[in-house]
Write a structure and sequence with these properties.
Layout lengths: L4 E5 L2 H19 L7 E5 L2 H9 L3 H17 L4 E3 L9 H4 L7 E2 L1 H11 L4 E5 L2 H5 L2 H8 L3 E3 L3 H13 L8 H18 L3 E4 L4 H4 L9 E3 H15 L1
Parallel strand pairs: 1-2, 1-3, 3-4, 5-6, 5-7, 7-8
Helix pairs in contact: 1-11, 2-3, 5-11
C-alpha cells in the first residue's frame, strides 16, 4: 500500500501544481486513476509573510510545524513543502518535526548532478536567491551557484509576489525572466537554471528558456510519489 503524503502548503499556486503533478503522474506507477493518499494543510500566505518580512525564520518554522502536526494527526507518513523560500526555516524546525520531511533542494541538486550540470542559475524570491537554501545544497554537491544582479532579483521578486502567487502569468514577465536566464547563460557560464520558486514553472517552461530547466515543484512532487510508492 502506498504511503500517505502530507503537503505543508504555503502559496496556493505552487501547492496546487505540486498536488496536480502527484495525482496526474501517479497512474504511471500505480495503475489507472491511482495515486497515493494526500492530505494538504494551508495556513494563509499572509501569516507567513509577516515573519518573512521581519527575517524571523523561527516564526516561519513555527507555522510550518503547525501544519506538520495537523498532517500527522490526519495520518500522513511523511511531509513535503512545495515552497522554496520557507525552507530557510528548515534548521529551526528539524528537531521538532513529527514526520520525515523531503527537502525540496535535495531533489533539485541530485537531478542537476545526474544531468551533468556544473553551474546553476537560481531564480526565486529575493529571500531565496540571497539566502542559504540552494547555496548550501548545491555547494555540498560541488555545483556552482549564480543569481541575477540586484535589479533583476527585485523585479523577479515583484513578479512572484504581485503576479504569480495570484495566478497571473503575463507575457511581459515571461519574456523578462527568459532574458535574465539568457544573460546568466551568456555572462556567468550557467548550464542549467533552477526554477526555485514553485510558481515560476507556471510562467517559464523548457521552451521558454535557453538553459535546461530544473523545475523544483515537479521534482519535489515526483520525489514524494516515489517515496510513497517505493518506500
Amino acid at each position: 500500500m502506498a504511503k500517505h503524503i502530507g503537503i505543508v502548503a504555503v502559496s496556493a499556486e505552487g501547492a496546487a501544481l505540486c498536488y496536480r503533478t502527484i495525482c496526474s503522474e501517479g497512474p504511471e506507477l500505480m495503475g489507472r486513476h491511482a495515486h497515493p493518499e494526500i492530505t494538504m494543510h494551508t495556513i494563509p500566505l499572509s501569516d507567513y509573510m509577516q515573519p518573512i518580512y521581519e527575517d524571523d525564520w523561527k516564526g516561519v518554522a513555527s507555522l510550518m510545524l503547525r501544519s506538520a502536526e495537523v498532517l500527522e494527526r490526519a495520518g500522513a507518513d511523511f511531509i513535503i513543502c512545495p515552497d522554496n523560500t520557507v525552507h530557510q526555516a528548515f534548521d529551526h524546525m528539524l528537531g521538532d518535526l513529527p514526520l520525515p520531511f523531503i527537502h525540496i533542494a535535495d531533489g533539485v541538486a541530485d537531478e542537476a548532478k545526474a544531468r551533468g550540470m556544473t553551474r546553476l542559475a537560481v531564480l526565486g524570491t529575493r529571500y531565496l536567491m540571497e539566502g542559504p537554501v540552494y547555496r548550501s545544497h548545491l555547494g555540498q554537491r560541488e555545483l556552482g551557484y549564480e543569481t541575477p544582479p540586484t535589479e533583476d532579483r527585485e523585479r523577479i521578486n515583484h513578479i512572484i509576489f504581485d503576479e504569480l502567487v495570484s495566478g497571473w502569468c503575463r507575457d511581459e514577465s515571461r519574456f523578462y525572466v527568459a532574458r535574465v536566464i539568457e544573460r546568466l547563460r551568456h555572462d556567468r557560464g550557467c548550464d542549467g537554471v533552477v526554477l526555485g520558486c514553485t510558481e515560476i514553472p507556471l510562467l517559464i517552461g523548457p521552451k521558454d528558456s535557453t538553459l535546461p530547466t530544473l523545475d523544483s515543484t515537479r521534482l519535489l512532487a515526483r520525489a514524494a510519489l516515489r517515496r510513497a510508492v517505493e518506500g
